[in-house]
Specification:
The termini are far apart. The chain has a single domain, classed as Metallo-dependent phosphatases (Purple Acid Phosphatase, chain A, domain 2, 4-Layer Sandwich). Helix 3 packs across helix 5. With 286 residues, the chain is α/β, with parallel strands linked by helices.
Length: 286
Protein backbone atom coordinates (compact mmCIF):
# COMPACT_ATOMS: atom_id res chain seq x y z
CA UNK A 1 0.00 0.00 0.00
CA UNK A 2 1.31 3.47 -0.94
CA UNK A 3 -0.24 6.06 1.40
CA UNK A 4 0.42 9.79 1.25
CA UNK A 5 -0.44 12.39 3.87
CA UNK A 6 -1.57 15.73 2.43
CA UNK A 7 -1.61 18.92 4.50
CA UNK A 8 -1.75 22.66 3.81
CA UNK A 9 -1.99 26.09 5.42
CA UNK A 10 -0.33 25.32 8.74
CA UNK A 11 0.15 29.01 9.51
CA UNK A 12 2.49 28.59 12.48
CA UNK A 13 -0.10 26.61 14.45
CA UNK A 14 1.93 23.84 16.07
CA UNK A 15 -0.91 22.83 18.37
CA UNK A 16 -2.78 21.58 15.31
CA UNK A 17 0.22 20.35 13.32
CA UNK A 18 1.57 18.21 16.16
CA UNK A 19 -1.77 16.40 16.56
CA UNK A 20 -1.90 15.67 12.83
CA UNK A 21 1.72 14.49 12.53
CA UNK A 22 1.24 12.19 15.53
CA UNK A 23 -1.88 10.75 13.90
CA UNK A 24 -0.04 10.16 10.62
CA UNK A 25 2.79 8.23 12.28
CA UNK A 26 3.04 4.73 10.75
CA UNK A 27 0.07 5.45 8.45
CA UNK A 28 1.84 7.10 5.49
CA UNK A 29 4.87 6.61 3.27
CA UNK A 30 5.38 10.26 2.26
CA UNK A 31 4.07 13.73 3.09
CA UNK A 32 2.82 16.54 0.84
CA UNK A 33 2.30 20.14 1.98
CA UNK A 34 0.63 22.73 -0.27
CA UNK A 35 2.28 25.75 1.33
CA UNK A 36 1.76 28.46 3.95
CA UNK A 37 3.92 26.85 6.60
CA UNK A 38 4.12 30.16 8.46
CA UNK A 39 2.21 33.42 9.03
CA UNK A 40 -0.84 34.22 11.19
CA UNK A 41 0.21 32.10 14.19
CA UNK A 42 2.93 32.30 16.84
CA UNK A 43 4.75 28.96 16.50
CA UNK A 44 6.72 29.20 13.23
CA UNK A 45 9.92 27.65 14.56
CA UNK A 46 8.17 24.58 15.97
CA UNK A 47 6.25 24.03 12.73
CA UNK A 48 9.27 24.47 10.48
CA UNK A 49 11.56 22.29 12.58
CA UNK A 50 9.06 19.44 12.57
CA UNK A 51 8.87 19.47 8.76
CA UNK A 52 12.39 20.42 7.63
CA UNK A 53 13.79 17.09 8.81
CA UNK A 54 10.63 15.02 8.48
CA UNK A 55 11.47 11.32 8.58
CA UNK A 56 9.70 10.39 5.32
CA UNK A 57 10.00 11.64 1.72
CA UNK A 58 8.40 15.08 1.40
CA UNK A 59 6.93 17.16 -1.42
CA UNK A 60 6.39 20.84 -0.61
CA UNK A 61 5.53 24.10 -2.37
CA UNK A 62 5.53 27.81 -1.62
CA UNK A 63 2.64 29.74 -0.06
CA UNK A 64 2.00 33.47 -0.10
CA UNK A 65 2.60 33.80 3.65
CA UNK A 66 5.89 31.95 3.26
CA UNK A 67 6.97 34.73 0.88
CA UNK A 68 5.78 37.42 3.28
CA UNK A 69 7.81 36.04 6.18
CA UNK A 70 10.82 35.61 3.88
CA UNK A 71 10.57 39.25 2.85
CA UNK A 72 10.44 40.53 6.41
CA UNK A 73 13.35 38.26 7.38
CA UNK A 74 15.36 39.74 4.50
CA UNK A 75 14.77 43.22 5.84
CA UNK A 76 15.77 42.28 9.37
CA UNK A 77 18.93 40.46 8.30
CA UNK A 78 19.77 42.89 5.46
CA UNK A 79 19.81 40.14 2.85
CA UNK A 80 19.71 41.11 -0.82
CA UNK A 81 16.98 38.78 -2.08
CA UNK A 82 13.97 40.93 -1.20
CA UNK A 83 13.45 42.17 -4.75
CA UNK A 84 13.39 38.59 -6.01
CA UNK A 85 10.81 37.68 -3.38
CA UNK A 86 8.52 40.48 -4.50
CA UNK A 87 8.57 39.87 -8.25
CA UNK A 88 4.98 38.63 -8.10
CA UNK A 89 4.03 39.44 -4.52
CA UNK A 90 2.81 42.89 -3.52
CA UNK A 91 2.69 43.72 0.15
CA UNK A 92 0.09 46.38 -0.61
CA UNK A 93 -2.35 43.49 -1.18
CA UNK A 94 -1.80 42.16 2.35
CA UNK A 95 -3.92 43.24 5.30
CA UNK A 96 -1.94 45.24 7.90
CA UNK A 97 -2.63 42.62 10.59
CA UNK A 98 -1.26 39.81 8.41
CA UNK A 99 1.76 41.97 7.54
CA UNK A 100 2.38 42.43 11.24
CA UNK A 101 2.44 38.66 11.71
CA UNK A 102 4.96 38.35 8.88
CA UNK A 103 7.18 40.59 10.96
CA UNK A 104 6.46 38.63 14.16
CA UNK A 105 7.39 35.31 12.52
CA UNK A 106 10.48 36.77 10.85
CA UNK A 107 11.81 37.97 14.20
CA UNK A 108 11.89 34.46 15.69
CA UNK A 109 12.90 32.15 12.82
CA UNK A 110 16.53 31.21 12.20
CA UNK A 111 18.58 31.39 9.03
CA UNK A 112 18.01 27.66 8.56
CA UNK A 113 14.26 28.26 8.62
CA UNK A 114 14.64 31.11 6.15
CA UNK A 115 16.71 28.94 3.83
CA UNK A 116 13.99 26.29 3.91
CA UNK A 117 11.32 28.85 2.98
CA UNK A 118 13.55 30.31 0.27
CA UNK A 119 14.02 26.98 -1.52
CA UNK A 120 10.29 26.14 -1.67
CA UNK A 121 9.17 25.88 -5.34
CA UNK A 122 6.17 27.83 -6.65
CA UNK A 123 4.86 24.49 -7.89
CA UNK A 124 6.00 20.91 -7.65
CA UNK A 125 5.21 18.15 -10.15
CA UNK A 126 6.28 14.63 -9.29
CA UNK A 127 5.45 10.94 -9.57
CA UNK A 128 4.43 8.73 -6.66
CA UNK A 129 3.69 5.15 -7.65
CA UNK A 130 1.76 5.27 -10.91
CA UNK A 131 0.30 8.74 -10.30
CA UNK A 132 1.58 12.04 -11.68
CA UNK A 133 0.83 14.76 -9.12
CA UNK A 134 0.78 18.55 -9.58
CA UNK A 135 1.13 20.56 -6.36
CA UNK A 136 0.68 24.31 -6.04
CA UNK A 137 -0.62 26.65 -3.36
CA UNK A 138 -2.95 28.77 -5.48
CA UNK A 139 -4.07 27.76 -8.97
CA UNK A 140 -2.23 25.78 -11.67
CA UNK A 141 -1.12 28.39 -14.18
CA UNK A 142 1.70 29.53 -16.46
CA UNK A 143 1.63 32.80 -14.48
CA UNK A 144 3.94 32.63 -11.45
CA UNK A 145 1.76 34.84 -9.27
CA UNK A 146 -1.36 32.74 -9.88
CA UNK A 147 0.43 29.62 -8.71
CA UNK A 148 0.90 31.20 -5.30
CA UNK A 149 -1.84 33.79 -4.80
CA UNK A 150 -4.86 33.01 -7.02
CA UNK A 151 -7.65 31.15 -5.24
CA UNK A 152 -9.17 28.00 -6.69
CA UNK A 153 -12.56 28.27 -4.95
CA UNK A 154 -14.40 25.29 -3.58
CA UNK A 155 -17.89 24.56 -4.87
CA UNK A 156 -20.43 26.09 -4.33
CA UNK A 157 -18.51 29.39 -4.23
CA UNK A 158 -17.70 28.74 -7.87
CA UNK A 159 -19.59 26.37 -10.22
CA UNK A 160 -17.99 22.94 -10.35
CA UNK A 161 -17.35 23.06 -14.10
CA UNK A 162 -15.65 26.45 -13.75
CA UNK A 163 -13.35 25.18 -10.99
CA UNK A 164 -12.33 22.21 -13.15
CA UNK A 165 -11.75 24.43 -16.19
CA UNK A 166 -9.62 26.87 -14.21
CA UNK A 167 -7.48 24.04 -12.81
CA UNK A 168 -7.02 22.47 -16.24
CA UNK A 169 -6.45 25.57 -18.38
CA UNK A 170 -2.72 25.32 -17.65
CA UNK A 171 -1.19 22.95 -20.21
CA UNK A 172 1.15 21.58 -17.54
CA UNK A 173 -1.75 19.74 -15.91
CA UNK A 174 -3.04 18.07 -19.09
CA UNK A 175 -1.67 14.63 -18.26
CA UNK A 176 -1.64 15.01 -14.49
CA UNK A 177 -3.59 12.45 -12.46
CA UNK A 178 -3.94 14.43 -9.23
CA UNK A 179 -3.98 18.23 -8.76
CA UNK A 180 -3.47 19.42 -5.17
CA UNK A 181 -4.02 23.04 -4.08
CA UNK A 182 -4.36 24.97 -0.81
CA UNK A 183 -4.78 28.69 -0.04
CA UNK A 184 -8.59 28.84 0.44
CA UNK A 185 -8.52 26.89 3.74
CA UNK A 186 -11.61 25.06 2.43
CA UNK A 187 -11.50 21.32 1.75
CA UNK A 188 -12.91 19.87 -1.45
CA UNK A 189 -12.67 16.85 -3.73
CA UNK A 190 -13.43 16.91 -7.47
CA UNK A 191 -13.57 14.02 -9.92
CA UNK A 192 -12.50 15.71 -13.15
CA UNK A 193 -13.59 12.87 -15.44
CA UNK A 194 -17.08 12.44 -14.01
CA UNK A 195 -17.59 16.14 -13.21
CA UNK A 196 -18.54 15.39 -9.64
CA UNK A 197 -17.52 17.31 -6.57
CA UNK A 198 -17.81 17.66 -2.82
CA UNK A 199 -16.82 20.37 -0.40
CA UNK A 200 -17.31 20.73 3.34
CA UNK A 201 -18.49 24.26 2.62
CA UNK A 202 -21.21 22.94 0.30
CA UNK A 203 -22.43 20.51 2.94
CA UNK A 204 -22.50 23.33 5.46
CA UNK A 205 -24.63 25.47 3.14
CA UNK A 206 -27.03 22.55 2.72
CA UNK A 207 -27.19 21.80 6.47
CA UNK A 208 -25.58 18.39 6.00
CA UNK A 209 -23.65 17.04 8.98
CA UNK A 210 -20.28 15.73 7.78
CA UNK A 211 -18.84 12.66 9.47
CA UNK A 212 -15.09 12.16 9.27
CA UNK A 213 -13.19 10.41 7.91
CA UNK A 214 -15.03 11.08 4.65
CA UNK A 215 -13.98 8.81 1.77
CA UNK A 216 -13.96 9.00 -2.01
CA UNK A 217 -12.82 6.45 -4.59
CA UNK A 218 -11.43 7.28 -8.02
CA UNK A 219 -10.67 3.97 -9.79
CA UNK A 220 -9.28 5.35 -13.07
CA UNK A 221 -10.29 8.98 -12.81
CA UNK A 222 -8.33 12.20 -12.53
CA UNK A 223 -8.98 14.32 -9.45
CA UNK A 224 -8.47 17.76 -7.87
CA UNK A 225 -8.39 18.21 -4.11
CA UNK A 226 -7.75 20.74 -1.39
CA UNK A 227 -7.00 19.14 2.00
CA UNK A 228 -8.27 22.19 3.88
CA UNK A 229 -6.22 23.99 6.53
CA UNK A 230 -4.23 22.55 9.40
CA UNK A 231 -3.94 25.83 11.26
CA UNK A 232 -6.89 28.03 10.33
CA UNK A 233 -9.94 26.33 8.74
CA UNK A 234 -12.44 28.56 6.95
CA UNK A 235 -15.22 26.20 6.00
CA UNK A 236 -17.13 25.91 9.25
CA UNK A 237 -15.29 22.97 10.85
CA UNK A 238 -12.71 24.11 13.43
CA UNK A 239 -10.72 20.87 13.45
CA UNK A 240 -7.30 20.45 11.84
CA UNK A 241 -8.08 19.26 8.32
CA UNK A 242 -5.92 16.93 6.21
CA UNK A 243 -6.06 14.01 3.78
CA UNK A 244 -4.67 10.50 3.49
CA UNK A 245 -4.38 9.37 -0.11
CA UNK A 246 -4.12 5.62 -0.81
CA UNK A 247 -2.57 5.34 -4.26
CA UNK A 248 -2.97 1.57 -4.50
CA UNK A 249 -6.66 1.54 -3.64
CA UNK A 250 -7.31 4.88 -5.43
CA UNK A 251 -8.97 6.18 -2.29
CA UNK A 252 -9.02 9.61 -0.61
CA UNK A 253 -9.92 10.05 3.05
CA UNK A 254 -10.55 13.50 4.55
CA UNK A 255 -9.94 13.85 8.29
CA UNK A 256 -10.71 16.48 10.89
CA UNK A 257 -8.97 16.32 14.28
CA UNK A 258 -9.70 18.26 17.44
CA UNK A 259 -6.81 20.00 19.18
CA UNK A 260 -6.33 22.46 22.02
CA UNK A 261 -7.78 25.58 20.46
CA UNK A 262 -8.25 27.16 23.88
CA UNK A 263 -4.51 26.92 24.52
CA UNK A 264 -3.83 28.39 21.10
CA UNK A 265 -6.22 31.22 21.85
CA UNK A 266 -4.45 31.95 25.14
CA UNK A 267 -1.12 32.27 23.34
CA UNK A 268 -2.68 34.46 20.67
CA UNK A 269 -4.17 36.82 23.25
CA UNK A 270 -0.88 36.98 25.16
CA UNK A 271 1.40 37.48 22.16
CA UNK A 272 -0.88 39.28 19.73
CA UNK A 273 0.30 42.86 19.09
CA UNK A 274 -2.04 45.32 20.78
CA UNK A 275 -2.72 47.02 17.45
CA UNK A 276 -4.58 43.97 16.19
CA UNK A 277 -6.07 42.63 19.43
CA UNK A 278 -9.55 43.85 18.59
CA UNK A 279 -9.48 43.37 14.83
CA UNK A 280 -11.17 40.63 12.82
CA UNK A 281 -7.73 39.12 12.22
CA UNK A 282 -8.25 35.97 14.28
CA UNK A 283 -10.40 33.72 12.12
CA UNK A 284 -9.82 30.53 14.10
CA UNK A 285 -13.22 29.06 14.92
CA UNK A 286 -13.90 28.11 18.52
Amino acid sequence: MVSVGIISDIHSNFFALEIVLDFLTDKIDSLICAGDFVGYGFQPTECLESLIDYSLPTYYCLGNHDIGVRYEYCKLSEKNSCDKDLQFFTLDEVRPAARQMFENNAEVISEEHYNFLEQLPVFNQFQIGQKLIHLTHGTPSKIEKDKVTRYLPAPPIQPLRQTIDRAQQYSGTKNVDIIIVGHTHQRFFINRDRIQGWSHLGDRYNNIMVKYPKEFNFPRDKIILNPGAIGQPRDGDPGASFVILDLDANNVRFYSLEYSRKELYKIAKRKCPSSIQDSTFWEIRF
